[in-house]
Every structure is written in C-alpha cells, then in structure tokens.
Specification:
The complex is a heterodimer of chains A (277) and B (60). Helix content of chain A is 67%, strand content 0%. With 277 residues, chain A is mostly helical. Chain A has one domain: Ribonucleotide Reductase, subunit A (Orthogonal Bundle). In chain A, helix 1 packs parallel to helix 4, helix 3 runs antiparallel to helix 4 and helix 6 runs antiparallel to helix 10. Chain A is globular and about 65 Å long. Chain A starts with a helix and ends with a helix. Chain B has one domain. Chain B is 48% helix and 7% strand. Chain B has 3 helices and 2 strands; from the N terminus they run ββααα. In chain B, strand 1 and strand 2 form a beta hairpin. The longest helix of chain B is centred in the last third of the chain and has 11 residues. The chains are: A mainly alpha (277), B mainly alpha (60). At the A-B interface, helix 7 and helix 10 of A face loops of B.
C-alpha cells in the first residue's frame, strides 16, 4: 500500500493557513481589480476538485489504496480554494465567489477508464504547478505571491503521488498501463492543441454538452485563456517546462527516452500496433 | 525521475554534484529548487548522493 507513506510525507509537508501565510504583509497598492478577478476564478476552479474526487472514488471502487489517497488530495485541493477565498474575504470581499458560483462547477463526470484519469491528473498537476509558479512571478502583492507558491508546491507533491500510483500500475498491469499513460501523454503534450491543456478544459459529460467543461461553467468562461495569455503571460518558455516535466517523468516511468512529443507519439503508435497484432 | 520544481532530472542534479560536490543543504540550494519547492525529491537525491558517495558533510 502506498497510502500510509504518502499520508506521512504529505502531513509532514502540510502548511497552515494561520501561520504559513504572511497575512500581515498585505499591500493594497500592489493589487488591481483584474488580479482579484483572477484569484476568484482560481478559487472556483480549485472547487472543482469536488466532482473530480467523486469521479475518482466512483471509478476506483476496487482500489482502496488510491481511494484513500484521494481523501488527502481532496482535502488539500479544497484548502486551495479556501485560502484563495480567505484572501478575498480579507482584502477584496466584493470578489468572493457565491455559493451558486461554486456549486456550478460541481456536476457529474461520465465514467472514464481509471488509468486514463490517473495519467490525465498527473499531467494536470504538472501544468498547474507551472501556472501557479508563473502566477507568483506575475503578482507583486506579497501575500498572494506566498499563497501561489504554497499551491504550486502542493500540486508538485500531488504529481509525485500520482506518479507513485502510475508506477504501481506499470508493475501490476504493464501493457494496458503503458498504453493508457502514453496516450494521455500524447494528448497533454500535443502542440496543436489549445495551450490550456488541463482536465478542467475537457468535455466530461455527454448529456450536458457543450456545457460540460469546468472552465465553461465559470462565471467568466473565457477567463482562463486571457489569464494565461495577457495577464500571467504563460509563454512558450513556461510551456516548455510543462512539456519537459511530462515527457521526462513518462520517460522515467516507461523506460524509454522521450525528448520530444513526437518521440512519445512514435512510442505510443508502436504500442497500439503491438496491441492490435 | 524528474524534479518538477527544479526543472531538472535527478540525474542532472547528481551530475552537477559529481562535478562540484557541495555540502548537502548547499547542494540543494545551488543545484535544485527543492528548498523553495515541494521537497518531494529530497529523500531520493540524498539516497543517490549517499549511494554514489558524492557527498561533503554540512558544517564540515
């Protein structure tokens, strides 16, 4: 079981909303309305860990180890939403999300193969880690900078935890796990796709289409692209860090060198051919 | 294994330490972002450094 060791390491790393956020260093002169709007949108996005946790528990009923880990992941993601809302409550209460806005990102996700969801969220955590690091660089207000660093670190730890479960799947299932992880890796490093390649941008409920992405259910559905492109400026350099993080970890996991997305695509095609013969 | 916070593979970090061995904490400061990052890779880096004996002690 991986869960007990993960619980221990994540508990040791856990930060306190009371003592690890320098609330008294707040500087109002370094915060504008657009930035407050972005903090609000991120708080709502983090709230969408609720339907994601529900999906994970539903689709992993035969896996008590991973399901137990999801209890920690859900707690920490909800805490991300809460710390952002606490920031708004203290310094910009007019931007606090309403309960209706939070509830709008809780909707049922269609069932999906458990290994695909695992790999998708592993890639998503790497991306989110980089978005938050970039957001920290963009902001000059010290308290929100500190919060984004805490969030980025948590997302990196979550990626490492997902990696551990991916490694376990490779050991137990080999072929099907390799096929699934490389397929998702190809999807998440495809340069022709929208740069906001994150689980919150995927359609997850056929019956609700097209209103079935988390981002599409935000009060400002076009916000994410604008935040990345015009506000925090998530440039090609940042994108390269995400790509390298995904490819290098998949290289290590699958035992093959993936210097480029193309190399991963070639590997994935070879697995498909092998699987069909 | 790849350290997301440092944007470096563990192999790259160990190679830097092999080229110029530093006390462990200083090594983390110079060759990684683990001290300001998530810290998940620190046990793995320590294990690799001890195994490879590319180590100078803190406060030595």
């Amino acid at each position: 079981m991986i869960y007990p060791a993960l619980f221990d390491s994540l508990e040791r790393a856990r930060w306190s909303m009371h003592s690890d956020v320098p609330w008294n260093e707040f500087d109002r002169s370094k915060l504008n309305d657009r930035q407050m709007h972005g903090i609000k949108m991120n708080a709502i996005l983090e709230w969408s860990s609720m339907p994601t946790a529900e999906m994970f528990l539903r689709d992993n009923q035969d896996d008590i180890d991973f399901s137990a880990f999801i209890s920690i992941w859900f707690f920490e993601e909800q805490k991300h939403s809460l710390v952002l809302m606490e920031y708004l409550r203290r310094f910009a209460p007019e931007f606090l999300p309403t309960e209706t806005e939070l509830a709008s990102v809780r909707f049922s996700f269609d069932s999906a193969p458990a290994l695909d969801s695992l790999a998708l969220h592993f890639c998503g955590e790497i991306r989110l880690n980089n978005w938050y690091r970039c957001a920290k660089d963009y902001h000059t207000e010290p308290v929100i900078r500190s919060i984004y660093q805490l969030l980025a670190n948590d997302e990196a730890r979550h990626a490492r935890a997902y990696y551990a479960y991916m490694q376990r799947a490779i050991n137990h299932l080999a072929g099907s796990a390799k096929l699934s992880f490389s397929k998702i890796g190809v999807l998440m490093t495809n340069p022709r796709m929208n740069r906001a390649m994150h689980p919150t941008n995927l359609h997850v409920n056929k019956a609700l289409f097209p209103n079935d992405t988390v981002n599409g259910r935000l009060p400002d559905p076009g916000w994410l692209g604008q935040w990345l492109d015009s506000e925090i400026r998530f440039t090609v350099d940042w994108e390269a860090k995400v790509e390298r993080g995904i490819l290098s970890n998949l290289s290590s996991l699958l035992g093959e060198p993936f210097d480029t997305p193309r190399a991963l695509r070639r590997y994935q095609k070879s697995l498909v051919v092998h699987d069909e013969t | 294994m790849f350290c997301i916070c440092s944007n470096k593979s563990i192999d790259e970090i160990i190679a830097a330490q092999e080229d110029m061995p530093l006390p462990f904490t200083e090594m983390l400061e110079c060759y990684t972002s683990c001290l300001s990052g998530c810290g998940s890779c620190i046990p793995l880096i320590l294990e690799r450094i001890e195994r490879g004996n590319v180590f100078t002690h803190d406060n030595s």
